[in-house]
Amino acid sequence: MADIVNLRRARKAKKRSEASDKAAANRAKFGQTKGQKAVQAAENKRAAKTLDHRKLDPSQK
Hints:
Number of strands: 0
Distance between the termini: 78 Å
Order of helices and strands: HH
Strand content: under 5%
Structural class: mainly alpha
């Protein structure tokens, strides 16, 4: 004999599964590790500092 399936629960479970798969794909596509974020922040800080040092008038901040 077949098991009785609650269609509402099955539909919600399928939706959660699809959302989880999409979230995993987005993490892989767009996510950065903490180390990568730290390196990027250091590079941005270094670039800003270099730019400030090359200004002709020091009062132009």
